[in-house]
């Protein structure tokens, strides 16, 4: 971490400077390279690299699921065994690809960043970034999966400026609209002094991705409006492992009656019972905690299998806190705008590294707060393979909307989809960014989803806002 980030971490966790230990980021066995390339030439360059390299486990990182399929297909057509890996695949198929890679049965995986969580394969020899990574932190983590056995490994970015549009669109698309944030604040302030929320339900109700809902609620905690009281499950599913009579037989009459009420308050399907704890507690006149304890005890005794459902997070409003909706809405808007600016800044640092003639490991070490002395002597900058300069890519004039694309926007707007009624919702959809509302309406299957993914989000949003006037 940079000195500033390290200081902030120490402050948040009350760690003294004397207790701050920071290990180095240097990995001398990793050979870093940047190869500037146009989008049209990237496939051929990747194919050339793979044909020239020694055999060894290889990960090729891409940004989009579709790109993973396209690149793996291209490599397969050219005689190389390569498998796609992304979150859109069936779980069993994805697990099979991961297991075969871990067992050295396949050498090349073309993956989104979904690949790598929990992967600890020591002998990965090559990591290619087909698309630009979204930050230097991401790059160090992803490239750092190579060469964990200490042997030499090759890490290369096939750097094209065109990737910026899609990466920036993800950042802009995650920023909720002012309307959505105001609605979220109103919901929180109208629940009473003590309440609970389902982040999943809030996500769909406000059309904000679940992780962004979590971020918004965390902001309200840190700024002193909300005090968390802890997560809990609103309901359970349970399967009885023996009949009700046998389960009740071991208890006295009073406890038997209590358990009968729990079973009666549940809805029974063919195998599983389903119980809503809040409703059951109200109908039985019992504490919710007592019902939860009883179900967990029965599971411990081997009488039933228990599956929790409906995760909720409890909160209470901080005493004497400001209850003004506009105040908190404005705060959230500012915080998300700052978050957005920070993400774009981190993305621009990736471009800066790729365009720099400085030794790549030194660039990374300086970013993470270390003071390198000499060049590594083996990266593309040190061996003069990358003299620096602007990356290849389309000109700015080529990124604007065409008349046909504006017509597509007008067509969608005229169809009056509820999930696309706000300009930001329409812009997200056209840039290929799913949301809870479009997923629920199955609009992501529409052929126009992502039709403008290569157009800057801000430009699409501006056009959507003008159509809404």
Order of secondary-structure elements:
HEHEHEHEEHEHHEHHEHHEEHHEHHHHHH
Provide a count of the helices.
19
Query: Percent helix among the residues?
Result: 40-55%
Biggest sheet: strand arrangement:
1-6-5-2-4-3
Number of separate strands: 11
Keywords, please?
six-stranded parallel β-sheet; 469 residues; single chain; globular; alpha/beta; 11 strands; five-stranded antiparallel β-sheet
What does this structure look like?
- This protein is an alpha/beta fold and 469 residues long.
- The mean pLDDT is 92.
- Helix 6 packs antiparallel against helix 14 (325-355), helix 7 (178-189) packs across helix 14 and helix 8 (199-206) crosses helix 9.
- It has helices spanning 3-12, 42-52, 65-77, 91-102, 136-143, 163-173, 178-189, 199-206, 210-222, 244-248, 253-265, 277-284, 288-300, 325-355, 360-367, 403-414, 423-430, 436-440, 457-468, and strands at 30-36, 58-61, 82-85, 108-111, 126-129, 153-159, 194-197, 226-240, 267-268, 273-276, 304-317.
- The protein contains 19 helices and 11 strands.
- The protein has a 6-stranded parallel sheet, sandwiched between helices. A 5-stranded antiparallel sheet has the order 7-11-8-10-9.
- The chain starts with a helix and ends with a helix.
